[in-house]
């Protein structure tokens, strides 16, 4: 046990402690967010969400609350006769896993609903929120946590800038709004 503790102390002294001052400077410096890019992203997202709502309502034949599990379940399973998955206390499940399973039916409403949900989440989590977190210089100051994960990796919060999707076009677009200072570059590293 003492050897294990000694190894942890060595890791702390060699890696973790020297990183504290670097992370503190990074938090104070912040990261620049282009308000202009975010405005374009917001407008583009709002337009696409309107198109998706219109397409979903057109396919359903009437307007309904897409965010209502009960109303969406009625459209998908009672009116469009798609194969229902698991039931909940309030009706049929319309969670993402269920909708992903319905993609094979070829019904275009399923794809539109999945895209609508993805964009809505990005909008409410990042697109609408990040600009409000900028300081007067256009910078966002996250908090880095050295002990925030079980794996020992660095994490961030307030806001969590690590969860912005990188695999989707929309996520990459949001990430593109973060701009390094002239003469600087962003560096992604693991240790």
Secondary structural class: mainly alpha
Percent of residues in helices: 40-55%
Low-confidence stretches: none
Shape: elongated
Distance between the termini: 25 Å
Number of helices: 6
Spatial ordering of strands, largest sheet: 4-1-7
Order of helices and strands: HEHHEEHHEEEHE
- What does the radius of gyration come to? 22 Å
The count of β-strands is: 7
What is the typical, i.e. mean, pLDDT?
Answer: 90
Q: Approximately what portion of the residues adopt beta-strand conformation?
A: 5-15%
* Biggest pleated-sheet summary: 3 strands, antiparallel
Fold topology:
Blueprint (H helix, E strand, L loop, with lengths): L1 H28 L1 E3 L1 H26 L8 H11 L7 E2 L2 E2 L3 H7 L5 H20 L11 E2 L2 E3 L9 E3 L11 H7 L2 E2 L12
Antiparallel strand pairs: 1-4, 1-7, 2-3, 5-6
Describe the 3D structure:
This protein is mainly alpha-helical. It is built from 6 helices and 7 strands. Helix content is 52%, strand content 9%. The protein has a 3-stranded antiparallel sheet. Strands 2-3 form a two-stranded antiparallel ribbon. Helix 4 runs antiparallel to helix 5 (108-127). The mean pLDDT is 90.
């Amino acid at each position: 046990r003492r050897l294990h503790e000694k190894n942890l102390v060595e890791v702390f002294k060699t890696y973790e402690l020297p990183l504290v001052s670097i992370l503190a400077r990074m938090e104070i410096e912040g990261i620049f967010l282009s308000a202009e890019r975010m405005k374009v992203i917001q407008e583009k997202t709002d337009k696409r969400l309107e198109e998706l709502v219109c397409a979903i309502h057109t396919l359903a034949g009437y307007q309904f609350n897409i965010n209502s599990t009960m109303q969406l379940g009625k459209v998908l399973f009672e009116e469009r006769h798609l194969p229902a998955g698991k039931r909940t206390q309030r009706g049929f499940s319309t969670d993402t896993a269920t909708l992903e399973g319905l993609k094979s039916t070829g019904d275009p409403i399923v794809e539109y609903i999945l895209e609508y949900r993805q964009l809505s989440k990005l909008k409410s989590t990042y697109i609408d929120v990040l600009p409000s977190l900028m300081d007067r210089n256009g910078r966002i100051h996250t908090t880095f946590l050295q002990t925030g994960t079980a794996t020992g990796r660095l994490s961030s919060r307030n806001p969590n800038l690590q969860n912005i999707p990188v695999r989707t076009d929309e996520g990459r677009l949001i990430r593109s709004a973060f701009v390094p200072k002239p003469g600087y570059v962003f560096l992604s590293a693991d240790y």
